[in-house]
Write a structure and sequence with these properties.
Chain A is α+β, with helices and mostly antiparallel strands. Chain A has 20 helices and 27 strands. Chain B is of the alpha+beta class. The chains are: A alpha+beta, B alpha+beta. Chains A and B meet through helix 2, helix 4 and helix 17 of A and helix 1, helix 2, helix 3, helix 4 and helix 5 of B.
Chain lengths: ~800, ~170
């Protein structure tokens, strides 16, 4: 099962022996750039709405309270409002009223109780948005209010991790604990007894909002076969199809989901597509007319999942020389009103909970719990930025206690080739383990030692400077969460162009471009020959979800598979005309020739035509199944991920002592991506991850009041970084080579965010000589921290 | 009720084309452009004038079309990103954005391109501070900000050299 597939092995051999890369690793302009900059063609879901002039608008009537039983729901006045075609409540749903992603806990339309302020009581289907919204005001609901829980510590005890007595949010499940995971390795008590230094602390992180600039949208069209076609903002068209078919009570084959390009996703469009798609499809199915939904920014804020807030207690023990001997952690994640991807997020957080270090003794317990907050789910990093913030702060505290440089402490403990992870997974050469090299390069790029020393001396005055480091790891693809496979199709058309199809989607990261570069390289055909079709469940088999930084690794391996098989046949056809052996055929479209005699030369079109006359098919389906992962539920031992992307981040900050404002001056990142496939893409990821991580570190926080209402559900009160906040970003790559990856590649989408907040927090802590245990590090927090410190100093002086 | 509002005929010139369209007094310019006229080169990100995605040049001024009532735009000349260059060509600003690989998801790009055009019309050689001031009204969640700054400088150079339009074919190959 874990052997390297033949096609990957042969392709690697060919390229290491005779070929130099022509497309892979090059910075080429992505396929969609021109259409996006000229703006004439419809690109995003909502751009297609004007093609359905008579589409009805579907408006969601949402809850007034965050936790209440619905005693009575009266929509008669809404139905009578002029221009309203239909009002849909839970009892109108023909199939199963559930859109839960991992756990069946989330009704599309609530029937019995509301669990957060985004819950939907009814759908108003009307001639347009204005009418629907106005009509929705006429709803009459009698609620019986229940206590609202916004603090996860009201559900679970941080010390014992036992569930507390409280009014259950999901009483139908008998508990508000969604998931528990653990790691048990070695003997943690003995580890701490042997430790010379122990540091212990509590860490807190906040809700983060994806704030993709394109709000969610859906268009649903009833079809003559009784099914529905849905054009939808979704990262995962097959997951959306499953959810829509379930709600409508239809076979999956009668639901067609088309996923246009998206204006950002970052994980947020993993499961919200199921919800908005099901709403539009349900309304189209029940009215027999095309329908549309475009969320307002406020709706987008309260109705898609967020990054899980974390409360964690960490205890680290080390020897005098810095060797880590024990780590103990208790981690609580607030998954809000519904599980969404919470259980998987909690699992990923657990897997990475001790950081990329050799830890002989570890005891980790993670719990994800329900509250009445907006639900939390997938967000770039998936539990990992939270635990890295805690672990990397702990490492800096340990360094301080030990009197060591923080980078030296990391060099002492980081995972290297041949080490075992905390799960007992052997990091063999085949996995590609370039963390040490990444850290070394980041240290050199940033001139770490000199700056660290210089800024340490600079502890007075109104402007302080600091520099902080973090290392990170991020398991590639989905591990034991589900079956891990992907697929693509390549179809050579008779004019020589090549149609590329996959169920993987592009939400802006340009990952599909990486797959094209791989196909181009193997086929010998320039990327401009390819036509990338929109993901469409009726045109491709399920390619697995577009999540977990898996497109390049998984989709890439499937692309290698398809292109390799196609190339074999093309070589045979060409050899037929050229008279040299198939292995001697070189394709450099538009030319095809014999490597041993380049004068024997035909054109790409000649080969296509010959194949046509010979009846040789020029289409291929590529499939790749990842090596199996394993995980023991009791001990957390096994091989949870196929491989890990490693990285090192160093951040430099300047702090205005009078205002508490933190300015990030520079961020240095070095990621071990296995192999750079798409140069433009990795640069984009490095910049985007750094900036989103900066927002997470310093300014972004979705705030709920005690009643569970969101206080900042728009872009003027929820701050995201602008051009004015953007630091200088310096990046470099380590190419350690992952044997199962396409040309050795690993994923980068999520890892590029994982270590940023940790490094910035360490830099701020360095500048202030104060502990930073909570994100975001707002000016208020910095100011109050400084004030507390100066008070302490004054007290000492007196 | 909404049916009681009269529809009013307005005239717009968008990207060089004349349109006559009936609108309700409460309808926003962005909706009329996108959903009545099918001009999708204008995007909407927030509906509150906060994100910068929906800006258009209205009689030469940079305005968020989500905050303008369509009837207020009656008789005006509107430019979207699709109207920056004649058919088959792209404008120096668009070329510059491609040159520096600034396009990711692309949702903010129509707004950003128009903001850069507007800035360079006013000031052909802006400083970093001026660039940041104008572009800080445009959110880009993919974080292409550093590339936008570079694009302004590249476009400024093109324009000062008198190179305003480029063949799309040249750019693609």
């Amino acid at each position: 099962m874990n052997q390297i597939p033949e096609h990957l092995r042969i392709v690697e051999e060919v390229f290491s022996k005779y070929r130099r890369f022509v497309y892979v690793g090059k910075k080429l302009l992505r396929w969609d750039a021109v259409s996006k900059v000229t703006g004439r063609a419809p690109i995003f879901t909502a751009d297609f709405v004007s093609r359905y002039r008579d589409a009805l608008y579907v408006y969601s009537i949402r809850a007034k309270y965050a936790h209440a039983i619905i005693k009575k729901l009266d929509v008669s006045e809404v139905s009578q409002y002029p221009g309203v075609v239909k009002v849909i409540t839970a009892k109108d749903i023909p199939g199963i009223n559930d859109v839960g992603y991992v756990v069946p806990d989330q009704p599309l339309i609530v029937d019995r109780k509301v669990r957060y302020i985004g819950d939907v009581l009814a759908l108003v289907v009307a001639r347009d948005y204005y009418i629907a919204r106005e009509a929705a005001e006429r709803v009459h609901v009698e609620y019986e209010k229940l206590p609202v829980i916004t603090n996860p510590l009201d559900v679970i005890d941080l010390k014992t991790l036992d569930e507390k007595k409280h009014v259950l949010i999901h009483e139908e499940r008998g508990s508000d604990v969604v998931a528990r995971y653990r790691i048990r390795r070695g003997d943690v008590e003995r580890g701490f007894r042997e430790a010379d230094v122990i540091v212990e602390n509590e860490y807190r992180t906040q809700f983060q909002e994806h704030a993709y600039i394109e709000p969610e949208a859906a268009i649903a069209v009833p079809e003559s076969d009784g099914g529905v076609t849905v054009i939808l903002t979704t990262q995962c068209p097959f997951e959306a199809r499953k959810a829509i078919a379930r709600v409508l009570g239809l076979p999956q084959g009668l639901v067609r989901v088309i996923a246009p390009l998206m204006g950002g996703g970052f994980g947020g469009k993993e499961d919200v597509g199921n919800v908005i798609g099901a709403k539009a499809a349900l309304a189209a199915y029940l009215t027999g007319q095309p329908t549309t939904i475009i969320y307002t920014r406020e709706e987008s804020f309260i109705s898609h999942s967020k990054r899980h807030p974390m409360i964690a207690r960490y205890r680290h023990g080390a020897k005098k020389d810095g060797t880590l001997v024990a780590v103990e952690a208790k981690i609580i994640l607030d998954t809000g009103a519904y599980a969404s991807l919470g259980p998987f997020v909690a699992w990923r957080a657990t897997v990475h909970s001790v950081g990329p270090y050799r830890v002989p003794n570890a005891k980790v317990d993670t719990v994800a719990v329900y509250t009445n907050n907006v639900y939390a789910g997938a967000f770039r990093g998936f539990g990992n930025p939270q635990v890295h913030f805690a672990v990397e702060r702990q490492m800096d505290l340990l360094a301080e206690e030990l009197g060591m440089d923080p980078v030296d402490l990391r060099f002492k403990n980081i995972l290297r080739e041949g080490d075992e992870t905390v799960h007992g997974q052997l990091l063999s050469k085949d996995l590609g383990v370039g963390l040490e090299e990444a850290l070394r390069r980041a240290v050199n790029l940033s001139n770490w030692y000199e700056k660290r020393r210089k800024y340490s001396l600079h502890s007075k005055g109104l402007v302080r400077k600091g520099i902080g480091a973090a290392v990170l790891w991020h398991g590639n693809s989905i591990g034991v969460e589900a079956a891990d496979y992907s697929s693509v199709s390549l179809i050579v058309n008779s004019d020589g162009t090549i149609t590329f199809r996959t169920g993987l989607t592009d939400f802006g990261q340009g990952a599909l471009w990486g797959l094209i570069l791989i196909a181009s390289e193997i086929l010998g055909v320039p990327p401009s020959y390819f036509i990338i079709e929109r993901a469409d469940t009726s045109a491709v088999p399920d390619s697995g979800p577009t999540v977990a930084s898996r497109t390049t690794v998984m989709g890439g391996a499937a692309t290698v598979n398809a292109a390799y098989k196609l190339r074999q046949r093309l070589n045979e056809v060409a050899s037929h005309i050229l008279g040299c052996s198939p292995s001697d055929v070189e394709i450099r479209a538009p030319d095809v020739f014999c490597r041993s005699n380049p004068l024997r030369r035909i054109s790409w079109r000649d080969v296509i035509e010959e194949a046509h006359w010979l009846g040789i098919p020029l289409q291929e389906f590529g499939y790749y199944r990842a090596p199996s992962a394993s995980w023991d539920e009791d001990t957390g031992q096994g091989s949870p991920y196929i491989t890990y992307t490693f990285g090192a981040v160093i951040a430099e900050v300047t702090i205005d002592v009078e205002t508490g404002e933190v300015t990030v001056d520079r961020i240095y990142t070095v990621y071990d991506v296995g192999k750079v496939i798409n140069k433009e893409g990795v640069e984009h990821q490095a910049e985007c991850g750094a900036i989103q991580g900066l927002g997470y570190a310093l300014m972004e926080e979705l705030i709920h009041d005690a009643e569970g209402r969101v206080l900042n559900a728009n872009l003027s009160t929820y701050y995201i970084p602008t051009v004015a906040d953007t630091p200088e970003i310096i990046y470099d790559w380590v190419e350690s080579g992952y044997k199962q990856g396409p040309f050795g590649a690993k994923g980068l989408g999520e890892p590029s965010l994982v270590g940023i907040a940790a490094a910035i927090a360490n830099a701020v802590s360095h500048a202030l000589k104060a502990e930073i245990n909570e994100l975001p590090i707002t000016p208020e927090k910095v100011y109050l921290t400084l004030k507390k410190l100066s008070k302490l100093r004054n007290d000492v002086r007196m | 009720m909404y049916d009681e509002y009269p529809s009013v005929k307005i005239r717009l010139r968008v990207d060089g084309k004349h349109y006559e369209v009936y609108v309700k007094p409460y309808e926003r310019l962005v909706d009329v452009l996108r959903y009545k006229l099918g001009i999708v080169s204008v995007k909407e990100g927030c509906g509150r004038g906060e994100c910068g995605s929906c800006v258009v040049l209205m009689n030469g001024e940079l305005v968020p079309s989500c905050l303008i009532l369509a009837i207020r735009a009656n008789g005006s000349e509107i430019t979207t990103v699709a109207g920056l260059a004649p058919e088959g060509k792209i404008h120096a600003v668009q070329k510059a954005l491609l040159d520096v690989h600034a396009i990711q998801c692309g949702f903010c790009i129509p707004g950003v391109a128009l903001a850069i055009k507007w800035l360079l019309d006013k000031n052909p050689n802006p400083s970093d501070e001026e660039i940041k001031e104008v572009l800080s009204g445009h959110y880009c969640r993919c974080g292409s900000y550093l590339r936008f700054i570079k694009a302004v400088k590249t476009a400024s150079k093109y324009i000062r050299e008198g190179r305003i339009y480029f063949d799309i074919k040249e750019v693609i190959s």
